Automatic annotation (TrEMBL):
<dbReference type="Pfam" id="PF01048">
    <property type="entry name" value="PNP_UDP_1"/>
</dbReference>
<dbReference type="InterPro" id="IPR035994">
    <property type="entry name" value="Nucleoside_phosphorylase_sf"/>
</dbReference>
<protein>
    <submittedName>
        <fullName>AMP nucleosidase</fullName>
    </submittedName>
</protein>
<dbReference type="InterPro" id="IPR000845">
    <property type="entry name" value="Nucleoside_phosphorylase_d"/>
</dbReference>
<dbReference type="InterPro" id="IPR010944">
    <property type="entry name" value="AMN-like"/>
</dbReference>
<feature type="domain" description="Nucleoside phosphorylase">
    <location>
        <begin position="53"/>
        <end position="227"/>
    </location>
</feature>
<dbReference type="GO" id="GO:0005829">
    <property type="term" value="C:cytosol"/>
</dbReference>
<dbReference type="GO" id="GO:0008714">
    <property type="term" value="F:AMP nucleosidase activity"/>
</dbReference>
<dbReference type="GO" id="GO:0009116">
    <property type="term" value="P:nucleoside metabolic process"/>
</dbReference>
<dbReference type="InterPro" id="IPR047039">
    <property type="entry name" value="AMN_phosphorylase"/>
</dbReference>
Amino acid sequence: MKSRQEIVENWLPRYTGVPLKQFGDYILLTNFDRYVSLFAQWHHVPVRGKDKPMSSATAGKITIINFGMGSATAATVMDLLSAIKPKAVLFLGKCGGVKHRAEVGGFILPIAAVRGEGTSNDYFPPEVPALPAFALQKAISTTIREHGHDYWTGTIYTTNRRVWEHDDEFKAYLKKIHVMAVDMETATIFTTGFYNEIPTGALLLVSDQPMTPEGVKTAKSDVLVDEKYVSDHIRIGIDSLKQLINRGLTVKHLKF
């Protein structure tokens, strides 16, 4: 295999166990098996690729993929998705609230992300901002309200560090740059989406408040978040993509 296209066309099925023609035109990305399982259960479709690095389920024009955790795998899945050129990719992620108003169970619709992870530097110089497709974020905004929820907008800081909650210097830095929340994938997905000419967006669920010791995520608190908030998170994501599908709206607002 000599060309990039040959590689991604071979590797997307290798990572997922799904032939290229069996993916939907619209993609939901997640870090969690529960999201894929609930999607499959609601639509009465199988979960595929349980023995592969990335499990998935497809219903109609929408495919949900659990790509794992972290910026490296986020970049990988976006590169592999270039094999099928999806019409839109929506990331349903969890994040840690930095500002007090980012309460557990709340939704954040990112308007941008700070590229603190380093992975995206392999795609663009550091000064290129990580931005979502505006039309996709607009569709998500409308859908959140239709579901009777409110949301915050703001900037997300994306980091490669998984264990930093003890680091007071790093937490002071997060406050200094006035980010709303912190995660491990959003900036990478926005940047690699732009690189691969794929419109991308994100809807983040605040799962913890790691700026204080009592707010750090635990096994118990994570279960409670899943039970109370994850179903709404997924349904909003599905309906956001259906809004684009049913209205036939394009989300590619940038000329790549």
